[in-house]
Amino acid sequence: MALGYEGYATLEYDPDGTGIQTVFLCTGSSVPKARQRLDSGAGYGGEISTPVSEIGIGSPYNFDWPLWDGSANFDLTKKLFTQQLNPWIFHRQTPATFRMVSRYNNYQVFERCYWNSISLTAAEGAAVTGSFSFAALDRDYYNLAGDGYIAGRTGAIGLQGCTGSDWFGSSGDIPALNPGSEPNIPPIPFWTTKVKAPTLIDFISWTVTFSQDVTKFFGCFGLQGPLAGLQAPAYVAVGPMTVTFECEYVPITNAPLFTAPDNFGNLNVYFDLRDENTYLKLKNLELETANDDVADQGSTAPITATYAVYELVA
Fold first, then answer.
1. Measured between alpha carbons, how far is 175 from 185 in angstroms, rounded to an integer?
2. Per residue, what are the HEC states of the chain?
3. Which of 73, 94, 179, 201 ranks highest by number of CB atoms within 10 Å?
4. C-alpha angle 166-142-79 in degrees, rounded to nearest 5
5. 225 vs 209: CA distance, rounded Å
6. Exposed, middle or buried: residue 312 (CB in 10 Å: 0-12, 13-18, 19+)?
7. Alpha carbon of residue 286 to chain centroid
């Protein structure tokens, strides 16, 4: 048995071979193993009643390539954005490696991960949060060693065992993420973010979402034996990227009538105005929906809007 604070996750987008892994504030993950069944619809002589061994249950089947499609939620940090997410967005056909430890010595390594969606959100009373989903082509299986269930789990990265030193340097220490140790890697509070727009409005919450389809293509390669169902896709392709900007804002103008702008030429989404490297530059935004409704007596009355984004600047 283990508690969640003992686990951690890393992301490694590595187009140039530098091998930088970023430990991030993962608040939850879901990477189920999905075994694709290949069922036959043929008749096979099953009986309605006894004997039990001949009752028609199920269909003749085999298994296709197992799917490792998953997701992770996180509290955003500057390192996660600058080292991993921002370059991963702009090099969207380059895979990354996702590693997670759910309990002591339980290392799971998902390789050749192509992102399906990446989302970042800032709202009152919370840290900046986000999520990403991905299609992984490989998982390095961990092995059972010895009689123990928890302490006996090991894994592999390349040809090395998954020890602390293999991941984080000669000391073998996991980088400290808690405020009682150095270096502390803090989440980004909502109030350090700012959306700069060429209009007299104040943004009070926002969400930027990137999405793309990841399609796998398999081939008929005549594979045989126990690993025949473990063939990798022959090709992987990603579809067009879609970007949306959802927001709540209030006008800061004395004009008697204010309507949501149909277009924004530029929007800069800063995570911290003191660091110009931590921002997204969105261009050519077009309004999709806007609501300006009555709110209850204890709430602000913002305008909510969704914009399609048609250009990004690295």
1. 9
2. CCCHHHCEEEEEECCCCCCCCEEEEEEEEECCCECCEEECCCCCCCECCCCHHHECCCCCEEECCCEEEEEEEEECCHHHHHHHHHHHHHCCCCCEEEEEECCCCCEEEEEEEEEEEEEEEECCCCECEEEEEEEEEEEECCEECCCCCCCCEECEECCEECCHHHHHCCCCCCCCCCCCCCCCCCCCEHHHCEEECCCCEEEEEEEEEEECCEEEECCCCCCCCCCHHHCCCCEEEECCCEEEEEEEEEECCCCCCCCCCCEEEEEEEECCCCCCCCEEEEEEEEEEEEECCCCCCCCCCCEEEEEEEEEEEC
3. 201
4. 45
5. 43
6. middle
7. 26
Give CA angle at 221 (216, 222), nearest 5°.
140
CB 137 within 8 A of CB 232: yes
Q: How far apart are CA 264 and CA 285, in angstroms?
A: 5
Average pLDDT of the chain to the nearest whole number: 78
C-alpha distances (whole Å) from 13 to each of 29, 60, 65, 96 are: 18, 41, 24, 4
pTM score > 0.85 for this model? no
Cβ neighbours of residue 252 under 8 Å, at least 6 residues apart?
200, 201, 202
Question: For the segment 156-172, what is each residue's pLDDT rounded down to a tens digit?
Answer: 322 233 333 333 333 44
Please name the amino acid found at residue 67: L
Per residue in 105-136, pLDDT tens? Answer: 677 888 889 999 999 999 999 999 999 999 98
Closest CA to 38 of 175, 285, 212, 229: 229
Bridge pairing between strands 156-157 and 160-161: antiparallel
